[in-house]
Specification:
Blueprint (H helix, E strand, L loop, with lengths): L3 H6 L5 H16 L5 E2 L11 H13 L2 H5 L8 H15 L8 E4 L1 H13 L5 E5 L6 H6 L4 E5 L10 H7 L4 E7 L11 H18 L4 E5 L22 E6 L12 E5 L9 H12 L6 H9 L8 H16 L12 E2 L8 H8 L4 E2 L1 E2 L9 E4 L4 H19 L3
Parallel strand pairs: 1-10, 3-4, 3-5, 5-6, 6-7
Antiparallel strand pairs: 2-8, 7-8, 9-12, 11-12
Length: 397
C-alpha cells in the first residue's frame, strides 16, 4: 500500500515553492530580470572567498580517505572541536566537541533534535508566525505541533497565550530568531521571560521542557546589533544552526546541533542523534563540506546588502500606507496586506510581476512575506512596480 500520509502531502505543496516555480516560468516569457521574485529565501550574495579557498586547499592537500570517506556517525572530531571553540569564544558557554552533532543543514538539525527529546504523542509548541515546514518536521516524528497565536504588535512572543498553551503534554518548544517570516529578532527580555516560563512549567510538571532554537539567520541582524543567544538564558537548549545563510552555501547542506553542556542528557544526546540518523537517513554529512566549514566557522559572506534592501522596501511600504513591523534581521519583511484576503492581494500583485507570498501558511493571515535576497539594483527597480500596484489597485496616494 502506498503511504497515505505522504500521498496526502502531494496536495499540500509549499506555496513558496509553487510561487517560485511560477516566477521561473514567467521569467522565461519576459526575462527573469523583469520578474520581481520575492518568493524564495535563497541567499543572493556569494560565499566568502575563504570558503572556496579552504575547499580547494583541502582537495589538493588532504588525505583522500579523510576527505571523501564516511565521517564518524557523530561527526568529524576535529570539525566538532572547532565548532565548539567558536561557540565558546562567541557566547561564553563551555561547549566541548561531545556536545556538537554535524547535520545536513538546519532541517537535519531540527529533525534530530525533535526526535531526541520527544516521544509519540508529545506536543511541540511553536510561536506564530513560523516557517510552515515546521508542520511536517514535527508531525512526521510522531509528536504533534501546537502553535501560539502571533503578537502582531512587534512579533515577539505572545506570552499570555504561551502560558495557556504550555500544558503538561508539551515536551519541547521550538523557536526561530531572527524569525522567518517576520524578520523579528527576539530581545533579551523576551528570551529571559521565555526561560523563566520554561523553568516554572518544568518544575510544575516535574519534567524538563526542552528548548529547540532554530538559528540559521543568527548573523543577519541590523542596526549594528546582535542576536542574543537563547542558550545563554536556558540550559536545556538544543541549538540548531545552518551555514546556509552566514556563508551563503545553502546547497551544501551543512549545519549542526549544539547541546548546552548543562542540558539534561548532555552526555547522551549526541550519541543518541547518531542512532536517530540510522532511522532517518540523515547520517554523515559531506566530509569535505564539514572540513571546509570548520576552516571558516567564524567567517561570513558580505551580508550588508540585506539591510540595504530591507530599508528600501520598508520605506516604500510605509510611504504607501502599509502597516509593517520593521525587521531586525533576516532577509524577510512581512507587511499587512491592504485587504483582509492576503492571497487575493498577492494574486493581484502578480499582474505587476511582483511575486509575494501570502502569510496564511505562516499562521499570519492578512499579511504577506517578501524575501529581499535579491540584487539591490533589482529591488530598486521593483519599487516603481510596488507603487503602481498599490496606487492603481487600492487607490492609495
Amino acid at each position: 500500500m502506498i503511504n497515505p500520509v505522504y500521498r496526502a502531502m502531494l496536495s499540500r505543496k509549499s506555496v513558496i515553492r509553487e510561487l517560485s516555480e511560477y516566477a521561473t516560468a514567467r521569467g522565461k516569457e519576459i526575462g527573469y530580470e523583469n520578474v520581481f521574485d520575492f518568493s524564495l529565501g535563497n541567499p543572493s550574495v556569494p560565499a566568502p572567498a575563504s570558503f572556496a579557498e579552504a575547499a580547494v586547499r583541502l582537495l589538493r592537500n588532504e588525505d583522500p580517505m579523510r576527505l571523501h570517506g564516511y565521517s564518524p556517525s557523530v561527526g568529524d572530531p576535529d570539525v566538532k572541536e572547532k565548532v565548539a571553540r567558536s561557540l565558546e569564544r562567541r557566547f561564553g558557554i563551555p561547549y566541548q566537541k561531545e556536545h556538537i552533532f554535524p547535520t545536513s543543514g538546519a532541517a537535519g538539525a531540527i529533525a534530530h533534535a525533535l526526535r531526541a527529546v520527544t516521544e509519540t504523542g508529545d506536543e511541540v509548541l511553536v510561536f506564530a508566525p513560523y516557517f510552515p515546514e515546521y508542520i511536517p518536521y514535527i508531525n512526521t516524528t510522531g509528536a504533534v505541533m501546537r502553535s501560539v497565536p502571533a503578537d502582531t504588535e512587534n512579533f515577539q512572543i505572545n506570552f499570555d497565550a504561551a502560558e495557556q498553551a504550555l500544558t503538561e503534554r508539551v515536551a519541547a518548544v521550538l523557536i526561530n530568531t531572527p524569525n522567518n517570516p517576520s524578520g523579528a529578532v527576539y530581545t533579551e527580555e523576551t528570551l529571559r521571560r521565555l526561560a523563566e516560563l520554561l523553568r516554572r512549567k518544568s518544575a510544575q510538571y516535574g519534567r524538563t521542557i526542552f528548548l529547540i532554537s532554530d538559528e540559521p539567520y543568527r548573523e543577519i541582524v541590523f542596526d549594528g546589533k546582535k542576536q542574543a543567544y537563547p542558550a545563554s538564558f536556558y540550559p536545556h537548549t538544543l541549538t540548531c544552526y545552518s551555514f546556509s545563510k552566514s556563508l551563503s552555501i545553502p546547497g551544501e547542506r551543512i549545519g549542526y546541533v549544539a547541546v548546552h553542556p548543562d542540558c539534561e542528557g548532555s552526555d547522551v544526546l549526541v550519541p543518541m542523534m547518531a542512532q536517530i540518523s540510522r532511522g532517518i537517513g540523515h547520517n554523515c554529512p559531506s566530509s569535505l563540506i564539514q572540513q571546509a566549514m570548520a576552516e571558516t566557522v567564524d567567517d561570513t559572506s558580505d551580508l550588508r546588502v540585506y539591510e540595504t534592501n530591507m530599508n528600501l522596501l520598508y520605506d516604500t511600504f510605509t510611504e504607501l500606507g502599509l502597516r509593517v513591523v520593521r525587521p531586525g534581521g533576516t532577509f524577510y519583511i512581512m507587511p499587512q496586506a491592504l485587504e483582509e484576503d492576503s492571497i487575493a492581494f498577492c494574486r493581484k500583485a502578480l499582474k505587476y510581476d511582483l511575486v509575494f507570498v501570502p502569510a496564511d501558511s505562516f499562521e499570519a493571515p492578512g499579511y504577506f512575506r517578501a524575501a529581499y535576497c535579491l540584487a539591490t539594483e533589482k529591488v530598486e527597480r521593483s519599487l516603481d512596480a510596488i507603487r503602481r500596484f498599490v496606487r492603481e489597485t487600492y487607490g492609495t496616494r
